[in-house]
Write a structure and sequence with these properties.
Blueprint: E1 3-12, E2 15-21, H1 37-49, H2 65-68, E3 82-89, E4 94-101, E5 109-111, H3 115-125, E6 131-133, H4 134-137, H5 145-155, H6 159-197, H7 204-217, H8 238-245, H9 250-266, H10 270-288, H11 290-308, H12 323-335, H13 338-374, H14 382-403, H15 408-417, H16 424-439, H17 445-513, E7 523-528, E8 531-537, E9 543-544, H18 546-549, H19 552-571, E10 579-581
Parallel strand pairs: 6-10
Antiparallel strand pairs: 1-2, 1-3, 3-4, 4-5, 7-8, 8-9
Helix pairs in contact: 5-6, 5-12, 6-13, 6-17, 7-17, 9-13, 9-16, 10-11, 10-13, 11-12, 11-13, 13-14, 13-16, 14-15, 17-19
């Protein structure tokens, strides 16, 4: 990277004017609070990146470089606030000047400017970790394993691992849910088929017996298998089949009406009411906790935004961002939404069976409406059609609320309607259809058998379709789960290799600065999927988290040593510059 030869600061932060020759040497700045020490750190970071870390992050929404980087007495004149660095690049074996003004922080002036110096500056801009304060270094120590993994991977330029992990996990979760829905739909069509055949146990012998009993009435050969195309109705004259499908079928209408009424009754049963209570409770948890609800809303938006981060701009507002900082900012928001993720999973578990039930109810209502319209004279089925449409709308709303919390109010309304007593106008066409069915003469045994086989074939074909969909969904879920698992295994193994090297350097550095009493110290980084545990030796008594027994000074030293080990791995011999604010302090252990 670079070494600083000279620095000049003008109207920047708490400094009116400062110019010092540093001669490519390491240096320290000491002094009472408020004398401008951190201002020099900010100036170096600003000159190299156009950014100031302490003016960004949590709790700094009202701060900005343009508004708050200039000296307070020059806040209205950002063009007067600038930093000028004369630096030496060992790799280029040459010196050059970097100058940056607060008025235009995104554009640095290089003297002399060349492709080589521009490339070097671009590299510095992508490595803002050379400038860190104590609060940023200690975050490697005072954080849960999941957050530590995120921070360390960002420093190692491996944050794409976490970004990809989140995407792969989402795909696996979606595939698993699609598989569950396919299972529910497959059970529904099979149940419908078995009900039509009049059997309680789904075994091949009983299925064939029911079909062949009707075929015998029509003097058709028995079938030995259900698999061949049209096997159930093979032998029925196509013209007769067409004729049979057109008139009103007393048997078909009676069966579909019974199924519809039974489905209405199911809405009152414990399996549905229990799932409804769970769904209402899950939604209430969100509405009763504004912070949790906000986290749920943000998580969906942020996860999508993280996938779209490609350039140095926010994918939502197009505002300028340094890409690494934006990715870090979004990942921090996702990490804070763990509780939101759990709430959404609980909601999905309750919603899925309800959505499947609503779909089945809408289909049954539609079938009854068709029979009403085939009656002679036709029965007004407007209420049934409207009911089926409303059920489909409620199902879409319940599906949506799992992905979009903005639909919570509508979802609660949909749940309120589920299980309510059927409206009179809904039952009227059903009652009229039942009365109409009773006026019809019973079909002949031959006609009844023919209709039975035609409908049985239709329902069996539906079963085959849902079974095929289920097989595809199962394969996709299995593949997605395997990819997620394999990704976790491979990425963890890779990270373990890196962490082995980092922990070796960390141990060496920390043992050196505490060589008077911890020469045999050892630290251990343990990677697991999405997490990074950190345990350290405590005077030969075992390994514990740093905050368990070590003093604050020791923890500061660990943060610094871990940072140095990580940056060494990232930059190698190119690591020639580190600007650390409030890290080496005479009151803390690392200065010993």
């Amino acid at each position: 990277m670079i070494q600083i030869e000279e620095i000049e600061i003008v109207e920047f932060r708490g400094i009116r004017h400062l110019k010092r020759s540093l001669g490519r040497r390491s240096f320290g700045i000491a002094g009472p609070n408020g004398t401008g020490k951190s201002g020099i750190v900010d100036a170096i970071e600003f000159a190299l990146t156009g950014n100031i870390t302490r003016l960004g992050g949590a709790g700094t929404a009202e701060l900005s470089v343009k508004a708050h980087a200039p000296h307070v007495d020059a806040s209205k004149k950002p063009e007067t606030a600038l930093v000028r660095l004369q630096v030496y690049a060992p790799a280029l074996k040459k010196s050059f000047i970097i100058e940056r003004s607060v008025k235009n922080p995104g554009a640095a002036v290089l003297k002399p400017s060349s492709a080589e110096t521009m490339a070097l500056l671009a590299q510095l801009e992508t490595h803002p970790e050379f400038a860190l304060s104590r609060r940023e270094i200690i975050k490697y120590i005072h954080v849960p394993a999941g957050k530590r993994s995120q921070y360390v991977q960002e420093l190692l330029r491996l944050d794409q691992l976490e970004k990809l992990r989140v995407s792969v996990q989402r795909v696996a979760n979606d595939a698993k849910r699609d598989h569950g829905r396919a299972e529910v739909e497959d059970r529904r069509t099979k149940s419908d088929f078995f009900h039509h055949l009049g059997i309680a146990t789904p075994n091949k012998t009983d299925l064939l017996a029911s079909v062949n009993a009707r075929r015998a009435v029509l003097k058709l050969d028995p079938v030995a298998d259900l698999a061949p195309e049209n096997a159930l109705k093979v032998g029925i004259n196509p013209d007769a089949e067409h004729e049979a499908s057109q008139p009103f079928s007393k048997l078909g209408a009676k069966n579909d009406l019974a199924s519809f009424l039974k489905r209405l009754a199911v809405s009152q049963e414990i399996t549905i009411t229990g799932a409804k209570s769970d769904a209402v409770a899950a939604l209430a948890q969100l509405t009763d906790d504004p912070a949790l609800l906000r986290g749920v809303k943000q998580r969906a938006l942020v996860e999508r935004g993280l996938e779209l981060v490609e350039g140095d701009a926010c994918p939502l507002c197009d505002g300028p961002w340094e890409m690494a900082l934006l990715a870090t900012h979004l990942q921090e928001k996702i990490a804070k939404a763990d509780a939101a993720s759990t709430a959404l999973k609980q909601l999905a578990l309750a919603i899925d069976p309800l959505a499947a039930h609503l779909r089945a109810m809408a289909l049954d209502a539609g079938k009854v409406a068709e029979w009403c319209e085939k009656a002679n004279p036709p029965i007004d089925a407007t209420s049934l059609r409207s009911h089926a449409k409303a059920l489909d709308g409620d199902r879409d709303t319940l599906d949506k609320v799992v992905r979009d919390p903005a639909a919570i109010a509508h979802a609660l309304q949909a749940l309120g309607r589920l299980g309510a007593s059927p409206a009179v106008e809904l039952l009227q066409p059903a009652d009229r259809l039942a009365a109409y069915i009773e006026t019809l003469s019973d079909p002949s045994k031959e006609q009844e058998a023919k209709e039975f086989l035609i409908v049985a074939q239709e329902k069996y074909d539906q079963c085959r379709g849902t079974q095929q969909t289920l097989n595809i969904a199962a394969q996709q879920a299995e593949t997605a789960s395997a990819v997620f698992s394999h990704y976790g295994t491979v990425s963890t193994a890779m990270l373990e290799g890196i962490y082995d090297k980092v922990q070796k350097d960390f141990t060496e550095y920390y043992s050196f600065i505490n060589r008077d009493d911890e020469a045999n110290f050892e630290g251990k980084l343990s990677a697991s999927f999405g997490k990074l545990a950190f345990d350290v030796d405590f005077y030969g008594r075992g390994r514990f988290p740093p905050v368990a027994y070590h003093s604050e000074g020791h923890q500061d030293g660990m943060g610094l040593c871990l940072y140095l080990a990580l940056v060494k791995h990232t930059l190698g011999d190119g690591f020639t510059l580190a600007v650390l604010d409030d890290v080496l302090n005479g009151r803390r252990r690392p200065s010993s």
